[in-house]
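In response to reviewer comment 3 from the previous cycle, which asked for concrete evidence that the modeling workflow produces usable outputs, we include below a single protein chain processed end to end. The sequence was submitted unchanged, and the resulting structure tokens are shown without manual editing.
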Amino acid sequence: MKELSIFIDESGDFGAYEHHSSFYIVTLVFHDQSIDITKNIEILNLKIKNYGMPNYTIHTAPLIRREDEFFDLTLLERKRIFNAIHNFTRTSDITYHSVIVEKKQCINSYDLVDKLTKKLSSFLKKHMVFLMKYDRIICYYDYGQRELTNILITAFNIALTDVEFTKVVPANYKLFQATDLLCTMELLSLKIERKMLSKSELTFFKSARDIKKSYLDTVIKKRIL
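The workflow returned the following structure tokens.
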């Protein structure tokens, strides 16, 4: 039985457009379960352990901004964690796609829901031949946003006759944390294009050039359109 796992995470909210919340991004990471990534996970866990860090659930946005559980960490410590999850994502045999909507182009939250649904449905339709190769497809999402949960269930069930949804605990799945990283990288790419990088992002990465050369260019190869 061929099984495909799809890990899903988002960046953004369904509130009104604001400068600090300009985009809504939904990232889907695809992993063929016949491809073993156990070694990649072991390397990531060992790196975090060797850095003397707890086995964090790596949320890259607060990691960059030095928030929540990362508040007491130095810049060097935070960059080590970021590099570890980035290397895991870069070396794992996965692909991804991001659905992106610029919120200022939406009249209201209903319009945002409409645009996200149409873009996701279009992507699924385009890649139906690939998806139909699998006997079992499981979508992993943390049900963090009710609106997105409804969009995902609707779009996937219209496109596919046999798809399962599982509520994921982020700490239990490194690929969910990789999805979080890819969401962040897509957002940073958009910010670079529009010269919107924040002070905390520039402090963490030093420059837009560093983001592109050291991080974005190495994972964007996994992107499917």
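The mean pLDDT is 93. We consider this sufficient to address the reviewer's concern, and the full set will be provided in the supplementary archive.
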